[in-house]
Design goal:
The protein has 80 residues and is mostly helical. It has four helices and no strands. It is 82% helix and 0% strand. 0% of the residues are buried.
């Protein structure tokens, strides 16, 4: 439900409209549940956290590989 920010009468009108409209309320309820089920369940939270961890580990592993490569590369400035 969208209303004009700072306009309490617009908000009141939108609330009255939803309260009076069973079909609109049902659509809002279904949309809210779909948002919840897709984003906020235990499984969705787990999947989201796993993606975050995998990205963090991937970045960390890539950084570690580069650091190891840089350490093992000969320093030509020292050999001259």
């Amino acid at each position: 439900m969208l209303f004009r920010p700072g306009d309490p009468s617009d908000l009141a009108e939108k609330v009255r409209r939803v309260v009076a409209d069973d079909v609109e309320r049902s659509h809002m309820r279904q949309a809210a549940y779909q948002t919840y089920a897709g984003n906020f369940t235990e499984k969705a939270n787990h999947n989201s956290l796993m993606q975050i961890y995998e990205r963090a580990i991937g970045v960390s592993q890539e950084s570690g590989k580069k650091s190891r490569q840089q350490r093992s590369a000969p320093n030509f400035a020292e050999t001259r």
